[in-house]
Amino acid sequence: MEPITGWVLWRDTPKSPASFRWGTLSSGLSFHEEKTPGAGPWITPGLVDVHAHLGIGETGPAGQEDALRAAQTNWNSGVTAIREPGSPTPPVDASPLTVIRAGRHIARPKRYLRGLAIELENPNDLPKVVAQQTQTSDGWVKLVGDWIDRSNGADSDLDPLWDTHILVDAVAAAHDNGARVAVHAFSRPAIDSLLEARVDTIEHGSGMTFDHAVEAARLGIAVTPTLGQVELFPSFAGDAKKKYPRYAHTMTELFDHRYQWFDDLRSAGVQLLPGTDAGGYQPHGEIQTELQRWVDYGMTETEVVDLATWRARDFLGLPSLHPEGPEEFVIFEERPALTKPVSVVGGADLLQCRRA
Ligand SMILES: [Zn+2]
Fold first, then answer.
1. Ligand 1 centre from 303 Cα, in Å?
2. Domain Amidohydrolase-related, which positions (predicted)?
C-alpha cells in the first residue's frame, strides 16, 4: 500500500493509555524520531459505535435498503464496527462494516417501543428466550430493563421490567451460552438488580449513582452513556407532562443531574463505551457529535479517542493496529474522532492497498 506518515494512535501494552506518535503505516507500522506536535494527519484504529441500530428506522423496523444505507453512513464517518443492541430486522451484509448483533430486544407487553421487541407475557420465560436469542446473535443479547408502565395512569413512571431473581437466571443463561448481556436502563430503581445479576453492559445508565458506578467498575460492568439520548430527556418529559406527570418529573431530574452523573461514572473508573443509539431517535454517522459531548462534559480529547477506538475494540474483542500492519484504520486532517475523517481504509480498500 501507499505509505502514510502521520500521528498514529498507539499504545505499548493493553494497560497503557494510547497516545499519538509520529510514524509510518505501510505493509507494517514503524515509528520515527518524535516530531513536535503540529499539523496532522492523524491515524487511528477504526472507531466503534457500541450502540447503533441498523435495523430500526424512524417509524419502526428498517427495510434492507435503509439498513444498508445506514451501514455505509457509519463507515463513512470512520466507524468500522458497531454493536447492534437489538434489531427487529433480518441481518444485512453490511461489509466492510463489522456488525456484532444482539438479536432482538426482549421486553414485556407494552413495555418498549411498539413492534420492535419480543414481548414476554410470562416474565419467567426470560432465561429460556435469552438462551434462544444467543443461538442467532453474535454473542450478545439485549434486554429492556426499565420503561414507563402506562397501566398506572397518572402515576405511571419508569419501572423495572424484571424481578432480580429472573435477571440473575437470564444473565446466567446467556453466559452459559457464551453470550454477554446488554440492558437498557434510564432510571435509578432498575440499577441495583442489574448489578446483582452482573449484566455486561448498562445502556444509557442515566440513573446510576456514584455508589452504583463504583460497584459497576468493581464488577467490570461497562456503561454506554449515550449522551445524545440524555439530551432528549426534556423533550420526552415535555411530551408526557400532561398525561404522565411523574414520568415527566423523573426524566427532568435525570436530565438536570447529567453532569454530576457523568463525572461520577468517570471518577469511579467505569469503562465507558461510545454509543449514539442511532436508528429511531438518532441519525446514523454522528459518532463525532456524541464524542464531542463527552469532551463538553469534561473528558480530554485524547481520552475520548482512546475510548472510542482501542478501548472499545478491546471490549468487543476486535483487532486494532498492530506492528505487522493495520486491519483497518481511519485518517483525520484535524481533531481525530471529533471531526469527520478524510478516509477510512479497510475491507476491500485494504485488500486493494495490499495488492498494489
Ligand atoms: Zn438503542
1. 24
2. 42-319
Distance 56 CA to ligand 1 centre (A): 9
Give the pLDDT confidence score for residue 348 in this predicted structure.
58
C-alpha cell at 168: 440473575
The protein residues having their C-beta less than 5 angstroms from ligand 1 (an ion) are 277
- What is the distance in A from the centroid of ligand 1 to the CA of 14? 29
**36 C-alpha vs ligand 1 centroid, how far in Å?**
42
pLDDT in tens, 243-264: 999 999 999 999 999 999 999 9
Report the alpha-carbon distance of residue 93 to residue 1 in Å, rounded. Answer: 26
Quick one: fold of 47-316? TIM Barrel (3.20.20)
Strand partners, 10: 19
3-state secondary structure at position 107: strand
Question: 73: helix, coil or strand?
Answer: helix
Q: Tell me the CA–centroid distance for residue 329 and ligand 1, in Å.
A: 26
Distance 20 CA to ligand 1 centre (A): 32
Side chain identity at residue 22, one-letter code: W
Give the CA angle between residues 8, 9, 10 to the nearest 5°.
100
- Cα of 144 vs centre of ligand 1, distance in Å, is 10
Q: State the distance from the centre of ligand 1 to the C-alpha of 189, rounded, in angstroms.
A: 19
In the chain, domain spans: 4-45+318-355, 47-316
Q: For residue range 264-277, what is the model confidence (pLDDT) as tens digits?
A: 999 999 999 999 99
Low-confidence residues of the chain: pLDDT under 70: 326, 347-356
